[in-house]
Amino acid sequence: MPEDKANSWESRADAHSLYGFTDLPTIHQRGAVVLTHGKGPYIYDVHGREYLDANSGLWNMVAGFDHPGLIAAAQEQYARFPGYHAFFGRMSDQTVMLSEKLVEVSPFQDGKVFYTNSGSEANDTMVKILWFLHAAEGNPQRRKILTRVNAYHGVTAVSASMTGKPYNSVFGLPLPGFLHLSCPHYWRNGAEGESEAEFTARMAAELEEVIAREGADTIAGFFAEPVMGAGGVIVPSEGYFQAILPVLRRHGIPMISDEVICGFGRTGNTWGCETYGFMPDAIISSKNLTAGFFPMGAVILGPELAERVQRAAEAVEEFPHGFTASGHPVGCAIALKAIDVVMNEGLAENVRSLTPKFEAGLAKLADHPNIGEWRGKGLMGALEAVADKATKRPFDGKLSVSERIANACTDQGLICRPLGQAIVLAPPFILTEAQMDEMFDKLGRALDKVFAEVA
Ligand SMILES: *Cc1c(COP(=O)(O)O)cnc(C)c1O
Fold first, then answer.
1. Closest approach atom of ligand 1 to CA 120
2. Average pLDDT across the chain, whole number
3. What gap in Å lies between CA 227 and CA 100, rounded to an integer?
4. Residue 290 belongs to domain with CATH number
5. 106: Cβ below 6 Å to ligand 1?
6. Separation of 453 CA from ligand 1 center, angstroms?
C-alpha cells in the first residue's frame, strides 16, 4: 500500500476503530467517511467534501451542526459547573430546571423525570422501574415486556431484547420474557383483501390473545414508538393506538411511548403520542432532547406511575439506580436550550410548514416503478424499493439495493440511510425549501442510477 494511502484517515479509521452497525464489505471497498465539522444541515469530510445530511446525523441533530445558541449554552455551563451527578440527594440547578421543563412540556399534568446517558439506558431504566414497581406492589411475577417486531429500543442487553430485529440473535438475544407482537405495517403485513380497519382490529386481537396466553399478571409493560424509526419509518395503521390502548388499560398494563425519535417535533407536534392522539403512562426521550449536542436520555413518568414509583421507593428507602452522569449539568443546560430552540425559534413550525412539500417529494419519487410505497409523518419518511410494484416483491437481498442507493447519494453529497430495502429521510428541522429540493434532486438521480443497474 502506498504510504499516503496507509496514512489516510480512511485507513486509520479502519485500523483502530471497530465499526458499529456498518456494512463491512461496503466500508472495505469505499472507506469510512471521516468528518471534521458541520454548518447548518451540511457536514464536511477530511477532503473538504460537503454532504447534505438528510438524516440529521442519527435523527438527532435537528437544529443543524453549528447552532450558536446551543454552543453558547454548552460553553456557559462548562464555565459555570462542568459536571456533577444526581445521587445522594444532590443535583445541579440545571437538572432541577430541566425536570420542571420536561414535565411542563410533556402531555402529563404532573410527573417525575429520571436521567440517563442514552435512549437505550432510558428504556433499560424504564424496564427496571416497572420491575421494581410491580415487585413492591406484591406482583413480582409481573416481568414480561411486550414490544413489536421491527421496533428499535436500543442496544443494551435489555433494550436490545425489546428491539424486534433479527440481528440480535448473534448475541443470543432477546432474553427470556421479551415478547414481540406483529408490526402494524398495513402495506407490508395486511392480508389479501383485508381492509386497514380489519388489519388494525387484528393487531388488537393479537394483543388480547398474547395477554390471555401469557396471563396479564405476568406482564410488566408495553413499549411502542409512535412511528417506528429504525424499523424503517413504519407509520402505524389507522386507529392502531386507539385499538390497543383500551386492551392494555383493561389488563392494567402500563403503556410507554418511546419518543426518542418522535419527541420534540419530528412528527409535527411536540410528541408523537399527540400526533396519534393517545395518552401513555410514561415517555422515553433522548436524541432530539439535546438536539444531539450531548449524550442524554430521560424517562418521564406520568402522574400515576410517578406516584406509585415514589411510594415503592419510600418503602425500601431508595430507588437503587442511576448513572454517574445522570442529570449532567451541561447536558441539562443544553437540553433546556434545545427545547427552547425547537419550540420557540420556529423549528417545530418549520417541520409543520415543510411537511406538505416533503410528502409531495416522497410521493413524486414513489411514482418510480421500483418504489413500492412512500410513507412518513412530519419530517420523517421512507421510500420502499421493490423488484415488482404489483406484487410488492422485494429485491434479492444479495443486490443490496438500498445500500447502493445510499452510496450513490453519498457520491453526490447527500447522506441518507438504507434500512432494509427502504431509504430513510429525516432531515434537520432547520432545512430550507431549497435544501429540500437539493435533497430530492440528488436522491432522484441516485434512484435512477441504481434501478437502471438492477432492474
Ligand atoms: C435511537 C433509539 C433508541 C436508543 O437510543 P441510544 O441513545 O442510541 O441508546 C431507543 N429508542 C428509539 C426509538 C431510538 O430511535
1. 9
2. 97
3. 26
4. 3.40.640.10
5. no
6. 34
CB of 258 within 6 A of ligand 1: the answer is yes
What is the reported pLDDT for 1?
45
Note whether 48 and 37 are within 8 A (CB). no
Per-residue model confidence as pLDDT tens digits over 122-163: 999 999 999 999 999 999 999 999 999 999 999 999 999 999
Burial of 105 (0-12, 13-18, 19+ CB in 10 A): middle
Task: Write phi, then psi, for 299 (nearest 5 degrees).
Answer: -100, 125
| Distance from Cα 222 to the centre of ligand 1, integer Å | 16
Is the shortest distance between the CB of 261 and ligand 1 below 6 Å?
yes
Q: Are residues 259 and 350 in the same domain?
A: no
Looking at the fold, whether 300 and 250 belong to one and the same domain comes out as yes
The pTM score is 0.97
**Ligand 1 site, residue 337, Cβ cutoff 6 A:** no
Residue 208 to residue 199: CA distance in whole angstroms: 14
Please tell me if the CB atom of residue 120 comes closer than 6 angstroms to any atom of ligand 1.
Answer: yes
